[in-house]
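Figure S7 source data.
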Amino acid sequence: MSTVDFESYFKHQRERIEEEAKLIKDFSVFSFHYVPDEPVLRPEATLLIDELANFNLSGIPTHLAIVGSRGSGKTLTVKYLERVVQRESDLEILYANCRHHDTSFKIFAHLLGIHARGASMSEVFERFCARCRRKTVVVLDEVDLMSPKDRRREILYLLSRAAQPFMVMMLSNSPQVLKELDAATRSSLQPVPVHFKNYNADQIRDILRDRAQRGLHRWEEADLSEIAALTTKFSNADARLAIKTLQYHVTGRAKDLRACFERARRDLVVDLVCDLSDSTLAILWAAATNDSDFARSIYERYCAHCRQRHEKPFSYVHFHSNLSYLQSAGLVALVSTKQGRTYANRVLLTFDRNMAREIAGLRFEA
Ligand SMILES: Nc1ncnc2c1ncn2[C@@H]1O[C@H](COP(=O)(O)OP(=O)(O)O)[C@@H](O)[C@H]1O
Ligand SMILES: [Mg+2]
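Tokens for the predicted adenosine-5'-diphosphate complex:
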């Protein structure tokens, strides 16, 4: 870029930012980590509050499995409750995201703030118990993303059997995780499922209005309603998508609301696909490149891909639970079709298959 280009580019950017500043009071409302002081509370949240209050009083835990599609406010709700609980009770809340700490051992090490190389699981758990002097709530976010290496999710068993008071709150996009628990863990944990239903258009509009009130100088109510309508009609009512569309709209990223929505949707899909584990991405790649959309046939292609890379493929059952995860993330739709006397599953991609191909190409050829 020549000096003149650079100057005019700089001037253009400054004008754009000044223009945006007239509209935007606070950019942080568009961050996905932003926790509003008073979020739009979904009715299911009161059940969580009741259980936390019970545990606070009695020390007897009810373990919860909070399940809902991506963007249904699971993480936000527990983050907000964490704040309230720390103010109003004697409970301690510990949070771990299983996407980043994907085995029981790594989760304990993370919660203890240590590198526990060389230690055994029972040593780490003992240290963890010694560290938790109060009634402790352990939040395991995205518990469905724990590594297949820790298929039994030992942490759940250990916490449910401990002599001291622990309460587990596990969050998952997919209900599959409950089916995968082994019998021993299930019987001592007895998790109560709490289903976060997809938001309806009114709820999404309320979430958007709250962001607008805090973050914008002016906005049109009709725009909020239109974004809410698009989000509930064309996605699993993912609040992230609505917030990003509003951001693109106020910063003039695309020519009209519909185009902002499409762009936000595409950008979120890219983020989502890039975030998938290698195994799940391999499954999505197989679905995107296979001639047939029947799950059995996609499984064959996935197995061939693993063999080529000298990796052990998942069993069909585990493959299928990954498909359910992809469905809950909104990347595929699973449809059951009658074939003769039985039913077969078909896997339909909800986005441009070339994108899955390209991202997988970059990951696997590297
Ligand atoms: N009830 C709500 N009130 C305010 N913001 C919300 C609400 N639900 C979701 N959001 C926002 O939408 C985005 C996605 O929510 P999140 O809790 O991360 O979803 P999930 O964990 O279910 O995938 C976040 O930016 C979050 O702040
Ligand atoms: Mg979340």
